[in-house]
């Protein structure tokens, strides 16, 4: 008798296969439907619904990373504030706003309030050294086109008026505090955004195969054979595709390896999990309206940057504090405990060993975080909310992220990357996205880069449509105040962000 799960059924041929039903696949699929409406698309998702991993609102920061408040994007180097990363990320977030606005105009996205809402973005400084840094950061950023209307407050009374929850019980005479930031920040529910994109995709004819895990990617001539396993029945099926995008989060690296993409040789992944403290007290939730980012402790990685975070999820306000680092060998929240061990290959062992030697601070940070109990986490919270009571908070598990380890030359061998990396191979017929923050916030910009790298010969023909979707395409808005102001007003209206 033949094992049913071993029978592979050749079923379909499509132009585009998208692996993973998260924000990245949803964004690329939407772009390609605009650029090439005749192309057929199919999406594979191992879980039974979209956006349940990194795109889930409870699994990511939801900040709409635009570098308005994230202090790790403006490091101090030789006494000078380096703005390059902040400006670059903000430019990319403006691309997101434009693309989402265009999709609202075209009826692809429905009610913007389901996925984006105005929430101020503020940066917190505690102690004179941090306050001095924050003031210099403010002076440097406020002259940039992309950062209009920035404020800086170091007066205790004004601080208390703006941030009452963070002021109650605080001894302003003991420690100097300040904040800077913007009232024009946003909170983004990437789960809701993904669902809206995929609802439109299905209406346009895209087949989404939930409960189907891609287990094979093989080059056949000029096309790809995508083999998936139905996790409910065990059936295997194959689809032939001209182009494959691997947007599978922590599993992307493994799938690119299955496809034998040479560009990922030597790459490795380091899994990091996270925890939040979530408020259960509605009075506290309503008393705070801001995303407040502080500074990571000296010697800790960027991922440790603490923040007190107002969220808007499914129409309900929430309040989170964290993240607290954790560790699990899984590469996805709903992955396998063997993920890390199965990812080790002869070509990436030097990368792992190199990071093990050079990233002692990360190891130390994770060990300390894992050792913390609930009471210790509340003590950390009290540096932001001095009056915090344990009974008003609960611990929730955040998403699983895989930090990319890039191969490098001796003596380092491997370099831990905290950003987002795009990898493509075989003449641009396959591509995948690796890494984490700023991730979802800059999905349209990342997918634009993918289009340029994988479909370069079509970019001239696509030009008019690209400019329609993203009017600033090819322009640095930070260098063009007039265009920035026009597009800012346009996106504010389309996304219903005007107060």
UniProtKB/TrEMBL annotation:
Species, as recorded: Corynebacterium tapiri
Protein encoded by which gene: mqo
Keyword line: FAD, Flavoprotein, Oxidoreductase, Tricarboxylic acid cycle
Cofactor annotation: FAD
Family to which this protein belongs: Belongs to the MQO family.
Protein name: Probable malate:quinone oxidoreductase
Pathway as given in its UniProt record: Carbohydrate metabolism; tricarboxylic acid cycle; oxaloacetate from (S)-malate (quinone route): step 1/1
Catalytic class of the enzyme: oxidoreductase
Lineage top rank: taxon: Bacteria
Pfam families: Mqo
Gene Ontology biological process terms in this record: tricarboxylic acid cycle
Catalytically driven reaction(s): (S)-malate + a quinone = a quinol + oxaloacetate
Molecular function terms from GO: (S)-2-hydroxyglutarate dehydrogenase activity; L-malate dehydrogenase (quinone) activity
């Amino acid at each position: 008798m033949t094992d049913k799960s071993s029978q592979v059924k050749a079923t379909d041929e499509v132009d585009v296969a998208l692996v993973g039903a998260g924000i990245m696949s949803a964004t690329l699929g939407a772009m390609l439907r605009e650029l090439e409406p005749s192309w057929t698309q199919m999406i594979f998702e191992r879980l039974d619904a979209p956006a349940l991993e990194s795109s889930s609102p409870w699994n990511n920061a939801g900040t709409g990373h635009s570098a308005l408040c994230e202090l790790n994007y403006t490091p101090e180097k030789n006494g000078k504030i380096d703005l390059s990363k902040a400006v670059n990320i903000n430019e990319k977030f403006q691309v997101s706003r434009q693309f989402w606005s265009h999709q609202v105009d075209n009826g692809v996205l429905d009610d913007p309030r389901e996925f984006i809402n105005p929430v101020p973005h503020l940066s917190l400084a505690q102690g004179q050294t941090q306050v001095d840094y924050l003031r210099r950061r403010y002076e440097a950023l406020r002259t940039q086109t992309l950062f209009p209307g920035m404020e800086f407050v170091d007066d205790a009374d004004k601080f208390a008026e703006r941030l009452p929850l963070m002021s109650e019980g605080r001894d302003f005479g003991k420690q100097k505090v300040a904040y800077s930031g913007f009232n024009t920040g946003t909170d983004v529910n990437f789960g809701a955004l993904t669902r809206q994109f995929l609802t439109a995709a299905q209406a346009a004819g895209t087949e989404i195969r939930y409960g189907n895990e891609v287990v094979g990617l093989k080059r056949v001539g000029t096309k790809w054979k995508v083999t998936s396993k139905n996790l409910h029945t065990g059936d295997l099926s194959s689809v032939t595709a001209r182009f494959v995008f691997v947007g599978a989060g922590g599993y992307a690296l493994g799938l690119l390896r299955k496809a034998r993409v040479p560009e990922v040789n030597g790459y490795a992944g380091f899994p990091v999990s996270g925890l939040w403290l979530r408020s259960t007290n509605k009075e506290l939730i309503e008393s705070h309206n801001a995303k407040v980012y502080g500074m990571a402790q000296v010697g800790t990685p960027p991922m440790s940057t603490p923040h007190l975070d107002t969220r808007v999820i499914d129409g309900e306000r929430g309040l989170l504090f964290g993240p607290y680092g954790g560790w699990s060998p899984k590469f996805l929240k709903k992955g396998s405990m063997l993920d890390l061990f199965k990812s080790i290959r002869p070509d990436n062992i030097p990368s792992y060993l190199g990071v093990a030697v050079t990233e002692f601070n990360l190891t130390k940070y994770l060990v300390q975080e894992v050792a913390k109990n609930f009471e210790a986490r509340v003590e950390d919270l009290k540096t932001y909310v001095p009056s915090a009571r344990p009974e008003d908070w609960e611990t929730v598990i955040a998403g699983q992220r895989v930090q990319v380890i890039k191969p490098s030359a001796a003596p380092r061998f491997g370099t831990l990357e905290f950003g987002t990396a795009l990898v493509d191979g075989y003449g641009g017929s396959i591509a995948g996205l690796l890494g984490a923050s700023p991730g979802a916030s800059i999905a349209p910009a990342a997918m634009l880069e993918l289009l340029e790298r994988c479909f370069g010969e079509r970019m001239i023909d696509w030009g008019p449509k690209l400019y329609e979707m993203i009017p600033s395409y090819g322009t640095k808005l930070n260098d063009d105040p007039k265009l920035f102001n026009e597009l800012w007003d346009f996106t504010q209206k389309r996304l219903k962000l005007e107060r």
